[in-house]
């Protein structure tokens, strides 16, 4: 009696699990095959740790590239979401993993560069080996469709006139967006009130509901579709050059803030310190191929994959620059 | 009618044999993972995300949505049978559900939850079909100031619904709020109360705390008392709710459907607030509120209904505005992005097949869940026939493994163990875990919105008066508090003799 | 914090029919622990800096909350609430064993993976607390472990720590 009911309980759990297995099998079959890589690497599945909860842009980007790398290198790239400690846990784990190329992670501004400056964590950028850039997303200043400010000029003029009166939602207090706004007030004496929110969804809500005056938001598909449809009006972008997809929107630099060109989220591939050169170059080459792959481009969004691929060296430089930039503002080391 | 045409299109999508299969797979997986504590819809959808993007977009969303609302049905089962709430919204169900099990009424408790869930879910889908655009406006109108008011209201409900004394509930709610501050400050990122432990930077995990306080606490408590391993079998009276049960809970189900539907639109705490509000409402309406916490069937029917209604109406902001209102829906959003589809205001025109297909599939999925759950209740009831020692041992292992699987971090196992010991002490000393756990969920939202409000208003409290929603809620709260204060004083003056029956004496069934 | 609470039960064992007046101390134990926690948190949040209302610091909210907790615990410590208070019994010591077994389980789980600690924990609980026969306990422990492993690690892909048993088996089969 006892045993039977215990079994019954288990079958209920097993049915869906079996369905899941069947589907995983299907996926596995379609992904396997293809040409093998030149070198020995990779000869077993690669774990790719994403330092955020599943569902966000980071996961979407990682999944898109993982399936492409998988095709190219003949081994599964398994995405493991490891949120917690704002990505600190994932980075800590990867920094102490064996540098054999079978544990990689998504390196980006917050978890990799800023987190160790704010909190005591056992890693820094020097504990990682860069491989290459997957995607770059600028931050864009947007207002609602019935905002009184129709251009960046009007917006900044109003901000200068009434310091601290305009509220601008940002994706969090320890993001490059927050730092740029802080520098806007420190270096150019234009003060807006930054309202840290959690994620694009909350920011979108607060602008649509008229709770804040503007957003300084990481550009992504959702922002794109709002701009296309007219409920968001872009005033300025944070990248050094104008963005190809908003040719009419000025950069902050053009608006008279030449220093403010750094609020760009970089999604790079990094591994633990001491990754062998052969592994780095294999991955780097494949990453470059993937960043031209139409399927990847469609999933990540064509504007976010830089036309000019940035490899290991370039990514190293990007992170080093970020470190230099944020250290005086955040650093306490 | 335009809507009916569109719904016709939706049903033609939903009744596609392949999609029917995916609805079925979704609700079955959902029920199963709802039953497994720890492994909630979030973790499951994360696991399935890479698979979905080889599927057709509509089928993928239909299946993932099925997992989500299916898990709401499944979550009830462990709350009622073992006092292990798998997710926030079913914490409230443990109050009366577990008491009903102890009285041998697990069957009616589960039966009424399944029926309530079906009605709540269906009412919400009908609302979603016809009222979605109107409600979407409400979702956006709720800004930081309104949130402060809603969360204060929620906390007020939390402290008033405990079974123990109000002071104990207040104390536990404050401790819950305090525990929720562990981790990084939501605004400045400063580490608070983390004692240098990196795993604490992200805060304590709700599921780990809830399963520790309720599940493990209860298991330790029963461990202490098992005289000789014995089954609860003898106490199982009937499997199906009686006519009286239906009569008692019909009002609760009707009110729960409406409450859940409206509150579910709120991003963030919608699910919990709706079940809390429903419980508080039923307790207040009851002729004899002292029955609550001791196995009142309305205390199970109302919150379960509200919780399912709210999980359905939570789709409104996602489908209409492209704003995911909780983690699970954010995951669904990600699944759509992977398919190259950006949910947003244009979804309804660009991809009516997805929009209406998903809605239609929810009607189908809810019917499937009802049909699926009725025989399942019989099976799950059989679980109680297993000797307590065996049941407790396996439940413990499910909790330990389940909690590990949330973040794949053994740290959460420690959290569950420590809170298990706390939970056991609380049972021994008559403190309720409910207010603690619920305050733990509401706390961070309250803090964040309060600080956002203060930033926006430049430190002025006027913002709570100028915001219409917050002004209304605070107004009602003030009137209510004044009324009950005056009422209490009058009663105290009238009844100089201690005529009042001690309402909260809890009879712990041994 | 946990250590304080863990010790609480062992000190006050089997105290029959307490009257609130004479044994009020034990009803005060939990409120006093909570009071201490509250005060510690007040100090902790003060040190986090409170900030001002128009720019609240990280400590402001924890400060408000811990003051509330301290007041509530203080009231309970002065006027203890005795209702729904259960007596400590001899079997309370069983509980210490149960908690200890879980501590060992988690430590082993991190060190040598899921399989061995799971069999041991299931066996212990089934045999010692469930009072099942050795044979049934062994069958359930091994069978249960297999089901859990297949369900979570294989089918759901939950990454358990490296497992000595599964690791050895796969090496022997040569996978």
From TrEMBL, chain A:
Annotated signal sequence range? 1-36
Q: Which Pfam families match?
A: TctC
Q: Does the keyword Signal apply?
A: yes
Q: Which UniProt keywords apply?
A: Receptor, Signal
Database matches in InterPro entries: BUG, Bug_dom1
User: Has UniProt tagged this entry with the keyword Signal?
Assistant: yes
Xref: PANTHER family:
BLR1237 PROTEIN, TRICARBOXYLATE-BINDING PROTEIN
- Similarity section: Belongs to the UPF0065 (bug) family.
The identity of this protein, by name, is Tripartite-type tricarboxylate transporter, receptor component TctC
Q: What is the lineage of its organism?
A: Bacteria, Bacillati, Actinomycetota, Actinomycetes, Micrococcales
Automatic annotation (TrEMBL), chain B:
* Stretches that traverse the bilayer: 20-39, 109-131, 138-159, 195-216, 258-281, 318-342, 354-381, 388-407, 413-442, 463-486
InterPro entries reported for this sequence: DUF112_TM
Q: Where is the DUF112 domain?
A: 20-438
- Pfam families named in the record: TctA
Which parts of the chain are coiled coil? none
Q: Which UniProt keywords apply?
A: Membrane, Transmembrane, Transmembrane helix
Protein name (database record): Putative tricarboxylic transport membrane protein
Q: Which organism is it from?
A: Cryobacterium psychrotolerans
UniProtKB/TrEMBL annotation, chain C:
Tree of life domain: Bacteria
Please verify whether the record's keywords include Transmembrane helix: yes
Q: Which residues form the DUF1468 domain?
A: 29-161
Q: Which UniProt keywords apply?
A: Membrane, Transmembrane, Transmembrane helix
List membrane-spanning regions: 29-48, 60-79, 99-124, 136-158
Which Pfam families does the annotation name? TctB (PF07331)
Q: What is this protein called?
A: Putative tricarboxylic transport membrane protein
